[in-house]
Amino acid sequence: MNMLEISGVHTHYGHVHALKGVDLVVRSGEIVTLIGANGAGKSTLMMTLFGVPHLSSGRIVFEGEDISGLKAHQISRRGIALVPEGRRIFPRMTVLENLQMGAAMSPAAHFGPDLERMFALFPVLEERLLQRAGTLSGGEQQMLAIARALMARPKLLLLDEPSLGLAPLYIRRVFDIIGELNRDHGMTILLVEQNAHHALRVAHRGLVLQQGKVVLEGNGQELLANPAVRAAYLEADQ
Q: What residues contact residue 153 under an 8 Å CB cut-off, 6+ apart?
């Protein structure tokens, strides 16, 4: 079943035509990876899905409902959570307070059990619970950003460049967690990532975005083996 359907989406930043008719489907239970060079429109697509900016034309349908004109908080209430590029945690708040912010729209009765689930996924967060988030390492901050999004109990998790700026050890851990969330918890994930090698290995399907358009699609292994994809996106990773 299709959870998310993006049809003919165009997005502008002022006079800049950033997305030029993007079509994309994410099925329930899938990890779909979107790769592409800097400036291809990957992050713009993620932000457009979350309502900022609004698309110029086209449709975004989530679980059968057209959400194209909704605001970010309305989209969040329908079960979509975004981990933005650069993490954007609240650095002056503690780890616990960041997690409380993530759970703001969930029933209070879920907070305790959900917090325990986050500790199981990210043990370091329990150790740092009362520490200010801005004093965490980059990898720990990324774990917090993912956990904060998960506290909202999303049906669809949007991850924008989760490995950006991380040490190799944390990159491997992030992708292990992505696989675990999907495999063990049934989480549907749309992943934007420049680290194409790791991202395609964990994905069920992948798409290549160039200059605001999807130019190639296939399963993760097909794209890993595609000579054009390897030359453009994989050789630098290895």
A: 79, 106, 110, 114
Structure tokens at 159: 């991850």
Cβ–Cβ < 8 Å for 191, 33? yes
Distance (Å, whole) CA 13 – CA 7: 19
Write down all domains in the chain, each with its CATH number in brackets.
Answer: 1-78+154-238 (3.40.50.300), 80-153 (no CATH)
Q: Residue 52's closest CA among 72, 67, 35?
A: 72
Looking at residue 161, the DSSP 8-state letter turns out to be S
The pTM score is: 0.91
- State pLDDT tens for residues 19-78: 999 999 999 999 999 998 888 899 999 999 988 888 999 999 999 999 998 999 999 999
